[in-house]
């Protein structure tokens, strides 16, 4: 895969019952440096679906059996993070707009141009990569938070609340020196080299902490 086409583990999953359209999309994507995997039905994709899949899903609205919208709803029920781009006919636009409001990335009307499709996919993959990085950071921050002792967590909560060392010492009934020791351990365990970074990470992982 070319460096401009996302990251090595990103795939574009195409789900469409139209064999000619599937083949043309696979050719377009692979000739543009992407990895494409095609499925002829929503059921076939669902059978192969894994939560760890990364990249994006290009999904036709109207198919025999399970429709594209039904697959989209099922993936949402399974907490899928795979971004979805719908391929839609003119009559399906209102439903596609509704799907976008429910979390789909975008939709594209048939017939569509190659450049339009590639532009949508490029943006979709970039957003998915960024979102995945954010989820990894949140998971790592949550793991680090779990390594704190009860006292260290109390000190952290007061730091996030904007309290100075003297104020923290007064609230917890400990010496300023002890606060400084706990604070240093918190910074080390959280992997934060600055107070600003510490605050950003914790608020990102636990938004309620900022309140």
From TrEMBL:
Q: Which SMART domains match?
A: HTH_LUXR, REC
Task: Alphabetically list the UniProt keywords.
Answer: DNA-binding, Phosphoprotein, Transcription, Transcription regulation, Two-component regulatory system
List the transmembrane segments.
none
Which SUPFAM superfamilies is this protein grouped with? C-terminal effector domain of the bipartite response regulators, CheY-like
Q: Which domain of life is it from?
A: Bacteria
One GO MF term on file is:
DNA binding
Q: Which residues form the Response regulatory domain?
A: 11-125
**At which residues is 4-aspartylphosphate found?**
60
State whether keyword Cell membrane applies.
no
UniProt cross-references to Gene3D superfamilies, sorted A to Z: 3.40.50.2300, Winged helix-like DNA-binding domain superfamily/Winged helix DNA-binding domain (1.10.10.10)
Residue span(s) of domain HTH luxR-type: 141-206
Q: In Gene Ontology terms, what is a biological process of this protein?
A: phosphorelay signal transduction system
One of its Pfam families is GerE
- The entry's protein name is Two-component response regulator
């Amino acid at each position: 895969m070319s460096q401009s086409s996302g990251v090595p583990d990103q795939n574009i999953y195409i789900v469409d019952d139209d064999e000619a359209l599937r083949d043309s999309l696979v050719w377009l994507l692979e000739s543009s440096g992407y990895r494409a995997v095609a499925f002829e039905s929503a059921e076939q994709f669902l059978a192969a679906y894994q939560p760890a899949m990364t990249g994006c899903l290009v999904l036709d609205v109207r198919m025999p059996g399970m429709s594209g919208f039904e697959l989209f709803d099922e993936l949402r029920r399974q907490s899928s993070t795979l971004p979805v781009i719908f391929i839609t006919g003119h009559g399906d636009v209102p439903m596609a707009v509704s799907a976008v409001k429910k979390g789909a990335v975008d939709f594209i009307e048939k017939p569509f141009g190659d450049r339009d499709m590639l532009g949508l996919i490029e943006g979709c993959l970039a957003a998915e990569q960024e979102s995945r990085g954010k989820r990894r950071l949140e998971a790592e921050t949550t793991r680090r938070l779990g390594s704190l002792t009860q006292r260290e967590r109390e000190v952290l909560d007061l730091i996030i609340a904007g309290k100075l060392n003297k104020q923290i010492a007064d609230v917890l009934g400990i010496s300023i020196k002890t606060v400084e020791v706990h604070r240093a351990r918190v910074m080390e365990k959280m992997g934060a080299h600055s107070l600003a970074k510490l605050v950003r990470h914790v608020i990102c992982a636990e938004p309620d902490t900022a309140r």
